[in-house]
Amino acid sequence: MSPADPAHPAQPATAPGSRPTQLWGPPPWLWLTLGLFGTQVPLLVEWLVWATSWSGTQHGRSPALLTVVALTLVQLLPVVFLLAGALSVVPPQPRTWWVERRYQLEPPDHEPDGAPHVYDQMRRFLTDRAPGTELRVSVRRDLLARVYPGGWRTTRVGVFSPLVGLWQWDREAAEAVLLHEIGHLRYGEQHVAGLGSPFTGLVRAWPYVFAVFGLLPVALLFAAGNATAPLMSAQIVLVVLSVPKILLIVVSALWSAELTADRYAAGTAVRTAQQRALNALAQSPRDALARLYHPPVRMRLWFTARTEQPVAQLLLVLLWPAAVLTENLLDLFGAALAYRLLGDSPAGDATRRALSLAYEQLASGPTWWAMLAILAVWPLLAGLWPRLWGWRGQAVGTLSPTVYATSALLPVLILVLGLLPAVPKPGEPSQADTRAPDATAAPAAGGNTAGGTSLPTPCPSPSKPAAPGRPEGLPSFDAPRVPDSTASAAPADTPMRSFRTLRVTSVEPLSGSLTQAQDMADRLAHARWTLSPDGTLTAQDADLPELRTTAVHDGTRLLHGEHTRTTDVSTTTTWVDARLHAQQGPTARLDLIRAATGNTHAVVACREFDSTVTAAARLALQLEEQ
After folding, report:
1. CA 167, CA 161: separation in Å to the nearest integer?
2. CB within 10 Å: which end of the chain, N or C, has fewer?
3. Around Cβ 372, how many Cβ atoms within 10 Å?
4. How far apart are CA 168 and CA 148, in angstroms?
5. Pairing of strands 497-511, 607-625
6. Element (H, E) at 185
7. pLDDT of residue 449
């Protein structure tokens, strides 16, 4: 009898242990998303260490510091969500307990009123198509069915009241709903999707998280008049853009998983049953946020009708990579705008800086390399991956190898662009200007041209970089600074005074990382200060220049200092503005604004490399006179 005989089910596309001739489906983008977020855990740990060291009464709290913490936290919370999701994979029992308590899911010990044998039929249906899958039921009416883990290799499907009604009046459509949930099992998505998923939890909580930790700090900045500062405005832009960036990556991964499960249901259910199931889903009550982590019903209907067409298969494989590309473009736009707010002029310089940053991300970032690696090895793993999660069914809805190979061209093209010569930063010569001279070319006397043809540019000579200028947008204290030669100096008979740092009451990074601001605060926390009769203030072992008094008013002394250090390849200038205010008793308050900018210029293999790095922080210290 021919293999097409309906009495004989189709054989799996791959035999155990053999290489598949066709792919079962797209790579498990959800798992890759979880892994990429996992690479950001060190950043999360660094922030937690910093937050712990600066919490409590020892260092105090200030609105500016809390604002910076909140703006940083809104960028790190996605890592927290998905790290919690990763921890729920092994072991999954805590998530199982929480899901069943939250959604009132119980074993089907009794049949629903007026619908005898429904739960028994559903249980047999699940056992026939996905052995080992357990049924749980709930009287809630806001869902149809959802999958969630019961153990590392066991799965539970939660069935809700509306599906019972659908089972009675359109059983084929109800079976298609269960087949959709079974479709998630082949990728182990019950551990990262379904009820209690960290991805759906992130999408649902993100609007509220951003309102509290993103919009509220921005409102406080505007109220305090600090939001218009260039350094803070640039950070606000990056935080606002983090919202679509996070949602793009997570939502696209969830949509890819849902469409893949739809494809499985369409290939195994009775013809048109999946479409009727989707229409029933469109009529069921759902909250607005659920529409984010599930594709629109119209899109799913369109996809279900074209599951075996090349355009639908390309959509499955390229949906997540396209979202990553969009995220890169948002990074490029945000960086260009932030550089403009920081004072880069003209606009072309900001664009070149942003392009240089994008180039470094493409060349050294892990996302596109990980994506290409997954696409390369997935043909070998496609038949083994489902068995890792206990899948014993047949391969349904395979992808065309030609379509799959075509989809791999996107990451290849992006990585090729990343391997091209870097975009020159502002002030850097282009690669054409820094090429090594041709050894066979004879130098021309008296010029750099011969016969109208340009000779190769000579190899540049090493030189010390110029001293950097004061960073634009750096805040200063209210009173104007006067030239040191006319500064109000202390009387000649004023005795020398000595202080020690009693505590650091606040620290606010203005540019650079939180770690850099913390390092400066740590050095100042143990500093000893000397105020000389001539009005100069010096600190021991604090990496600060000598501060000279520029003005004295009502017991408040304004000071300024700067120094420049030069090596063969770098020049670093440090600026410090300070305000020393005497308080009652033997204490004083010292406010500091410290900024350091380093210019580096090196010549390697006849190519010039230039870089500029700025770190700035605002600190408040309480001093005790000795």
Report:
1. 10
2. N
3. 17
4. 24
5. antiparallel
6. none
7. 40
Please report the pLDDT score of residue 492 as a whole number.
46
Q: For 60-110, give the DSSP string.
A: ---HHHHHHHHHHHHHHHHHHHHHHHHHHHSS-HHHHHHHHHHTT-B---S
Q: What is the mean pLDDT of residues 574-598?
A: 87
pTM for the predicted model, two decimal places: 0.62
Chain-centroid distance, C-alpha 320: 15
> What residues are paired with 559 via a beta bridge?
549, 578
How many CB atoms sit inside 10 A of residue 447's CB? Answer: 8
pLDDT tens per residue across span 337-359: 766 665 544 555 556 666 666 66
**Direct distance between the N- and C-terminal alpha carbons of the chain, in angstroms, rounded to an integer:** 101
Kindly report the average pLDDT of the chain as a whole number. 75
Alpha-carbon distance 581 to 575, whole Å?
20
Helix or strand (DSSP H, E) at 219: helix 216-224
- Length of the chain measured in residues: 626
Quick: pLDDT tens for 197-225: 877 877 777 777 777 766 666 666 666 55
Q: Is the pLDDT of residue 52 over 60?
A: no
Q: In this structure, which amino acid lies at residue 167?
A: W
Cβ–Cβ contacts within 10 Å for residue 220, how many? 16
Contact status, residue 30 vs residue 193, Cβ threshold 8 Å: yes
222 to each of 215, 236, 606, how far by Cα in Å?
11, 11, 49
Q: What is the 3-state secondary structure (H, E, C) of 11-27?
A: CCCCCCCCCCCCECCCC
Longest dimension (CA), the chain: 114
- DSSP run (H or E) holding 498: strand 497-511
DSSP label of 485: G
Looking at the predicted structure, is the pLDDT value of residue 179 above 90? Answer: yes
The closest of 35, 33, 29, 43 to 75, measured between CA atoms, is 43
Quick one: average pLDDT of 424-429? Answer: 45
CA distances from 301 to 274, 278, 307 (A): 8, 7, 10
